[in-house]
Amino acid sequence: MLAVAGTTSIIMVSSAAYLYLAPLLPSAETYKDVQLETPLRIYTADNRLIDEIGNRRNPVTFEEIPLLLTNALIATEDVRFYSHSGVDIQSLLRGFYGFIRGVNLGGGSTITMQLANNLSFDSDNVYLRKFKEIPFALQIQRELSKEEILTLYLNTIYFGAGADGIGAAAFVYYGKAVSELSLAEAAMMVSLLPCPSTCNPLSNPERAIARRETRLLNMLNEGMIDSEEYSTANSSPVTAQRHNRNIAVHAPYVAEMVRQQLYREFGEATYTLGFEVTTSIDGDKQLAANRALVEGLEVYYDKRHGYRGPAAQYLVDDADPFADSSRAPSTDPTEYWLEQLQTVPVYGNQHPAIVTAVEQRQFSALLKSGETVNVPWEGMNWAYTFRSRNEAWPPPQQAADAVQIGDLIRVKQGQQHWELGQVPDIQGALISLSPSDGAVLALVGGYDFRRSQVNRVLQARPPGSNFKPFLYGAALEHGYSPASTINDAPITRGDYRPNNYDNTFLGPVTLRYALKESRNVPAVRLYDQLGSSKVLPFAAKFGFQTQNFPRNDLTVALGSQDVQPLELVTAYAAIANGGYKVDPWFIKQINSLADGVIFQSIPSIVCEDCSQSHDESAEVIVPAPRIIDSRVAYILNSMLRSVIEEGSGNRVQRELARGDLMGKTGTTNGPQELWFSGFNQDLVTTVFVGFDTPEPLGEREQGATIAVPIWIDYMRSALADTPEASMSRPDGIVDRLIDKTTGAVATPGDSNSMFEYFRAENAPPMAGDQLPGVELDEEASEELATETIF
User: Fold this and answer.
1) What rounded mean pLDDT belongs to the chain?
2) Nearest Cα to Cα of residue 594 among 12, 24, 35
3) Contact (CB, 8 A) for 643 and 678
4) CATH superfamily label, 308-321+331-421
5) pTM, to two decimals
6) Over the Cα atoms of the chain, what is R_g?
7) pLDDT digits 0-9 by tens, 687-715
8) CA distance 104 to 101
9) What is the DSSP secondary-structure string of 367-381?
10) Whether residue 229 has pLDDT greater than 70
11) Domain 2-36+57-234: which topology?
């Protein structure tokens, strides 16, 4: 009686659902043709894969699907598939009976109903969804053959690992066509339904094997395979492995920039239309940038500030909660520890590990792979106890001073042995451009994209002294020379009293010396002399958003206003290329499967002769606009060369020993941000280091201590095959022998003299002439008296 009532209820509800939903149901023409879906692929300029984003779908025909696969599906999901009309009343009754009892007895949905749900419906209520599926399933049954239903189902179901449809799944898991699947592989494919993310053999092989066995048993019970076939397939090892294209160059921040740009244009189609994006990224330079930033943050900052201790501790007795603390644990904690490690990701070079044994001068640790590694004393003696950003003390005397059994730590594989490590809490960024056309050649937006997706190349922070070249460039444009003098003496405006990093004042110094040594007070005085009306328009030519800068704030001279690393490196590119404005770009070409090339970049290019060829097939050349006098650019280059030879960036010259490198450090108050921007004619690179939430890095830190060595490590590799090349000296530049200290014209043989560059119209005509600069009274000159400016 209950069965009759249930059947009657199902028929009545289904009829009502059909009458309501029939006008809304799609026709066969709208769902029958399954389109190929190909993920977005992103490549370097030298055609190496950066990333693949989106799902694959490779539709197959019924003839390509092996019988053993459809049998595995039918035996598991719908044994009466060929005998019912799209809706299986027996299964629905079982589901209905479970519904009135308040339990889920399974069953109900046929393959056709599941297909209907895949194509149209989604609901959290399983019973409501089934009644929605019924009318559509009946329609599908009328419009399609059983073979077409199976084909459409297998082409539209999600198999996990980014594979939509069986064609893509066969390739992703086994690297083969669906027609080539073995019985064991076919059963494994069906076992993924309906939990492709948690049941797949890549993430959970043990569960996948158990589910495969169930599918094989179903086939055996239905007479689709014999016992020998069952035994052979059931004993087959798991051979599934991800067969997506191997990523050759790790550049996730670049990939995300590309994804965002395409998504703004194409929406969800970004992930399915098979776009192939060729970026401007140089593969080798990107790999060098990755190494330099990750190693630099770990070694040049984090290790120097001491060991912060384990992330957690998993005591031996945690593996056996009933263990008596007075005796050895009754269970081996290895399995428990491995379980904990599986949830901890690798960041940078830092592998999660749990300490398993501690001796006097070494310890052993378990990796998430199950391997046990040994860390000798040489790999852990750096682990001074972290006390503050300014203090790490005391040093470890034995291994137990740093680690204990059960500690969740990080280890890093060194060149000769494993080392104790930790994930830096500091962040950074590196961006490298071609000065000739603005192409982004390498970009790293943070320590590890998996840990933080914030792209710090695009985050604005105060650049500190990294901004000073644009102040000094403005001075050169307005008649000053590197030999002009400025007074390094105390200055006060209201409550503002700038100081130099060494808390000393030197009196009159030349502009070259002031920039080389990054003296703050002369920079503030120079800004005050020029005024914002001269400095800010000059800086704006380089791309700085100076409309947001205050007009009456002397701290602008010291880089107090937030700018992005991308803005800085673009501005430095204009110095490097002799005074031309280039715009940064990172997408070179976009191809789609349907339409071929749909975008081709046409960047502005620095070139001496940009006249167009009469050949119609020649590339379109867009000349980069000149923004400053070539002589100003040349002299500013020479001043930034002094920074490398003798000033705050002298480590660059010591380690790279090249004569064509220029640059400038930057350190803000605290210090909270550390910078270095440097270049030659072929490459310009900016490095930023700081916490995401600004806080002091430690009183001993400067741009020269962290940003500079990171820059060196990158440029050493990036310029390895690039010969030195000096900038051509433009017409209208003359040199004079001057006194290094006073800037006055010197006489031959003067031991304190040097040749200085001048624009011809600003060159001193004879020895002893006063050069453009600050006119000092005797008192200010001799006593360095404080000058109050209001």
Assistant:
1) 90
2) 35
3) no
4) Nucleic acid-binding proteins (2.40.50.140)
5) 0.86
6) 35
7) 999 999 999 999 999 999 999 999 999 99
8) 9
9) ETTS-EEEEEGGGTT
10) yes
11) Penicillin binding protein transpeptidase fold (1.10.3810)
**H helix or E strand, kind and range, residue 277:** strand 276-279
Q: Nearest-CA neighbor of 482 among 133, 190, 736, 127?
A: 736
Strands lying side by side in the sheet with 673-679: 440-444, 427-433, 684-690, 673-679, 662-667
Instruction: Please say whether the beta carbons of 358 and 420 come within 8 A.
Output: no
Options 280, 436, 465, 630, the catalytic residue? 465
How far is residue 577's CA from residue 606's CA, in Å, rounded to a whole number? 7
Check if 77 is active-site.
Answer: yes
18-27, 57-66, 183-192, 633-642: least confident range: 18-27
Give percent above pLDDT 70 in the chain: 86
Lowest mean per-residue pLDDT among 109-118, 130-139, 742-751: 130-139
CA–CA separation, 440 and 279 (whole Å): 8
For tokens 């000769």, name the residue.
416
- Looking at residue 759, its pLDDT comes to 98
Both structure tokens of 119: 């194509």
Q: Is 213 helix (H, G, I), strand (E, B) or coil?
A: helix
pLDDT at 388: 97
The dihedrals phi and psi of 739, each to the nearest 5 degrees, come to -80, 125
The CATH class that applies to domain 442-582+627-718 reads alpha beta
Helix (H) or strand (E) holding 590: strand 587-592
CATH 2.40.50.140 domain extents, the chain: 308-321+331-421
Whether 169 and 199 have beta carbons less than 8 Å apart is answered as no
Question: 730: cis peptide before it, omega within 30°?
Answer: no
Average confidence (pLDDT) over 657-678 = 98
Ranking 306-320, 646-660, 745-759 by mean pLDDT, the lowest is 306-320
Helix (H) / strand (E) element for 57: namely strand 56-57
* Count of Cβ atoms closer than 10 Å to residue 182 Cβ: 16
Q: Which helix (H) or strand (E) holds 430?
A: strand 427-433
Average pLDDT over residues 177-185: 97
Chain region(s) in the chain for CATH 3.40.710.10: 442-582+627-718
CA distance linking residue 676 with residue 482, whole number of Å: 22
**What's the rounded mean pLDDT across residues 154-182?**
94
Token output for 758: 């001048």
Averaged pLDDT, 660-673: 98
**281 exposed, middle or buried (CB, 10 Å; 0-12, 13-18, 19+)?**
buried
Residues forming beta bridges with residue 756, ordered by sequence position: 736
Q: How far apart are CA 620 and CA 626, in angstroms?
A: 19
Helical H segments across 531-587, by residue range = 532-541, 565-576
Six token digits for residue 614: 């009469």
